[in-house]
Amino acid sequence: MNKFSVLIWKGTPIINNQGDKMAEWMFDQMGNTCLIFDGDKIRNDGGDVVAWISQNNVHSLTGNHVGWYEGGVIYDSDNSALAFIRNCSGSLPNRPALSGTPGMPGFSGVPGKPGLSGVPGKPGRGSWSIYDATRYFEHE
Fold it and tell me: Contact at 8 Å (CB) between 104 and 23?
């Protein structure tokens, strides 16, 4: 008999019974795919690592704090919703209809993880982010 098991991390499946990480598409405020949640990493739609998740914090590739990750939702530095996974439990201003998901791209190698900066105080929860999720991590 073949058993299937999944490790759940903060409400998100990340490891299957073969020990493989299970990456998952994230969606923007319009319901379009924009980023990929990959365990402790966020990847762009080309498969490149663009950010790190450490506890509930999101850090740029240079280690700067750029937001929060809670219940499958990335919040920007203003604590406004930026992107979310399909079955998120985090707070969203509204839940858009979701587009279909493309196949997963090939993933690039994982860069070295820098020292991570301190975490600033969290502002009150905002609405949808004013930033484009596909470009948010480019300025860092």
Answer: yes
What's the token pair of residue 22?
A: 């299970």
- CB-based burial of residue 84 (10 Å sphere; 0-12 exposed, 13-18 middle, 19+ buried)? buried
What residue ranges do the domains of the chain occupy?
Answer: 7-91+111-139
Q: What distance in Å separates the CA atoms of residue 127 and residue 138, rounded to the nearest whole number?
A: 22
Secondary structure element (H or E) that encloses residue 67, with its range: strand 65-70
Q: Could you read off the pLDDT of 72-128 as tens digits, one per residue?
A: 999 999 999 999 999 999 999 999 999 999 999 999 999 999 999 989 998 998 899
Q: Point out which residues pair with 25 in neighbouring strands.
A: 36
DSSP bridge partners of 34: none
CA distance 8 to 20: 13
Q: Whole-number mean pLDDT of the chain?
A: 87
The span from the CA of 67 to the CA of 74, in Å, is 7
